[in-house]
Amino acid sequence: RHRCLETALLFDRIGQLGEAVGEFDATGIKLKALCQTRVGGWLCQGGFRQRVLVEQRRPAKTQFWLDPFDQDAADELFPACRELGVAVIVRVPFDEGSLTGTFTPDQTWPEGDFRNVYFGGRKLGETCRRVDAVREDLPDGMPMPELALRYVLSHQDVTTVIPGMRRPRHVEANLAVSDGVPLPRPLVDRLARHRWDRGYVLP
Asked: Among 8, 25, 47, 160, which has the highest number of CB atoms less than 10 A from its own CB?
């Protein structure tokens, strides 16, 4: 925990730097320290820190991760954004592709693809096991990507979501989820059991 404190102090210095150049907002000068902060081999969840940044800086918008695995934003950040009228942009709703439900434990990617590191070693197998557990909660006929997007959009504080896409059909499928129909509340509550406070450092 002392390293989490050191990280908070470091972010304070980052904030001072940003103010000096007039570029600071709640994204910490666009440093990817929004959802998880890596310090000295520890993984410190960043929802609390992001909430503090929002409360101190009062930005018009902020970005954060949210999916059935990464649920920190709903704990600390969303209530602050709701109170202060800050727009919430959710990034990476598919957990870098795992929540599309298409990965396998022996999945490979071309050399240089960041997913070789993100899902490297034991991470891919563990991720696939957890995706299979989420699949057990899929409503009949609903694809996994739709579940992930509707999970995000079922949170009233989310203003918009930025899903990834690689093919035109992905764009069409993503757009179809913007019909304003959230997941049933009991299903959202069941998905809470898939929360994953990862015990290793992600790139």
From this structure: 47
pLDDT of residue 109: 93
pLDDT at residue 47, as a whole number: 55
DSSP-assigned beta bridge partners for residue 89: 63, 160
Q: Is 35 exposed, middle or buried (0-12, 13-18, 19+ CB in 10 A)?
A: buried
Distance CA(160)–CA(171), nearest Å, equals 15
Q: Which residue has the tokens 């959009």?
A: 153
Full-model pTM: 0.74
Q: What are the pLDDT digits (tens) for 122-132?
A: 899 999 999 99
pLDDT band at 49 (very low <50, low <70, confident <90, very high): low
Indicate the pLDDT class of residue 140, thresholds 50, 70 and 90: very high
* Rg, the chain, Cα only: 17
In sequence order, the 6+-apart residues with CB closer than 8 A to the CB of 167 are none
Cβ atoms of 36 and 45 within 8 Å: the answer is yes
Q: Is the pLDDT of residue 183 over 70?
A: yes
The H or E element that residue 134 is part of is helix 122-135
Q: Are 126 and 98 in contact (CB under 8 A)?
A: no
Assigned token pair, 37: 């902060």
Tell me which H or E stretch contains 90.
Answer: strand 87-91
Three-state secondary-structure class, residue 36: strand
Element (H, E) at 172: helix 168-176
